[in-house]
Amino acid sequence: MDLFEQLAEVQVPPPPKNLDRRVHRRINRWLVTLHVVEFVLRIVPYASLHFAAAVAGLVRFSISGKFEKEKKS
Fold first, then answer.
1. In angstroms, rounded to a whole number, what is the distance separating the alpha carbons of residues 34 and 27?
2. Cα torsion angle, 17, 19, 20, 21, sign
3. Which whole-number Å values give the CA distances from 48 to 2, 12, 39, in the listed order?
């Protein structure tokens, strides 16, 4: 008798009625935590860098009066 046949004969108890609620609470807690951590560590610095570049361009334009048309690589 192979393993799959043995597993087919094993009786599995039904899941608890509040399993879905508990699982959803745990998953939702982790998802919110991970989203906040990712937002703080990845998105805020990225957005801040691009915002700082725009502010620097505004300051350069305000001081020199010339708009830089070519982007430096």
1. 10
2. positive
3. 60, 53, 12
